[in-house]
Amino acid sequence: MESLLAELRAAVGAGAVLTDADVTAGYRRDMMPLAPHGQPLAVVLPSSTEQVRAVVRACAAAGTPIVPRGAGSGLSGAANAVEGCVVLVTTKMDAILEIDPDNRLAVVEPGVVNLDLRAAVEKHGLFYPPDPSSYDWCTIGGNLATNAGGLCCVKYGVTTDSVLGLEVVLADGELLRTGRRTVKGVAGYDLTKLFVGSEGTLGVITRATLALRPLPQAPSTLVATFDSTAAAGAAVSRVVAEGVVPSLMEIMDRTSIRAVEQHLRTDLNAGAALLLCQSDSGGEAARRELAAIEQACVGAGAELVYATDDLAEGRDLLTARRAVLTALEVYGAWLTDDVCVPRTRIADLITGCERIADEVGLRVAVVGHAGDGNMHPTIVYDPSSEDEFARAKRAFDEILGLGLALGGTVTGEHGVGKVKREWLAKEIGPVGLRVHRDVKRALDPENLFNPGSMFSP
After folding, report:
1. CA 278, CA 280: separation in Å to the nearest integer?
2. Which of 180, 284, 297, 385 is the most buried (most CB within 10 A)?
3. What is the pTM of this model?
4. Whole-number Cα distances in Å, 373 to 157, 196, 340, 343
5. C-alpha distances out from residue 452 to 28, 77, 87, 298, Å
6. Could you read off the pLDDT of 199-211 as tens digits, one per residue?
7. CA 105, 110, 112, 114 torsion: positive or negative?
8. Contact 93/139 with Cβ under 8 angstroms?
9. For 323-345, b where at least 16 C-beta lie within 10 A, e where not — what string?
10. What whole-number distance in Å separates Cα of residue 145 and Cα of residue 252?
11. Maximum CA extent, the chain
């Protein structure tokens, strides 16, 4: 391994190769406590595509696995180290290489922070839609690897919907360029979408060409409260049936509402469920959208409906939604799940999570993106208690099973990683799993990239 370490230092510089165990410990795992992780041989921080290629070639020659990593904000263990691997961190590759306002695109390196890109393109009257909750510190490379979502997916889609093309370092160190810079293009297989969401198992993304949109209007906000989750779920179904597409539609259950009220020292005046919606259409269009949503909520039995054009009020309401995970920390450590169900089954999922919480004897708070059915049941437990940790793991798995039983999927935006491998197999079946393995072998025959993530070889 000393020979490999020497090659890595020659490739990226001695200061960009970390081997001290106390230092590399910070790169062993992401934010998912359930996923296994090992001790890396080294952590390398390349600053260019050519350096990434050199690292990949050196590791391939030595038969050493590579785990690509961004900021570490993931929630599936997809960036977790395996024993003796090289963790390849792309955060130093943080240049916004181009913003083309006329063609509404940007070319960026993977280490660019999501919020920094948003701020940069906003100066040109443009908008980069994907907005994970960690958008103020997560990186574009990690968003691409996990096909991250966010609060605005109901209108703008997930990360892949904003990707035109990629530059990817393959397992032999060769550089693959996929996609295009044009609005349309159907030449060949859609390799861009293959790599987006592949969680670093097929290659290392070193550059991305991203589609931008015109900057939306300032959002108008509506909040509705309900005395039952069934009523809130019915309101969501009515909004969908009306064909209204808000820029944001979030739901909070009773447990998450109470936690946020205590954390922010405020009273949301909500009962069993709260629905938070925004429209960024502006002017009369926004008023029509919110009026239709209000009518749907009232028809479903809302206790209170309040709409505002005031930006400060809207920000305060959205702060309450974004504060849920922080608010739950007062009760213990949290373990957040990520299931997506048909929008007509959201109430069934929340009710099922209440049952699971009673069965395991732990607090489970449910928040999520009601507009697309992507829910985040969050289990709170005492990390010092082996018994509570085991019960949290049981609840996590039972929620995944519930999601599948309701006609959903085991992940809407966090990815499979190393924590949901068996659940991916259950969802896609043996033929789907075989095809996944065939693709992996074709592009990475030596199982160099992120071995054991998503599925076993």
Report:
1. 7
2. 297
3. 0.93
4. 13, 21, 5, 5
5. 15, 11, 14, 49
6. 999 999 999 999 9
7. positive
8. no
9. ebbebbeebbbbbbbbbbbebbb
10. 28
11. 70
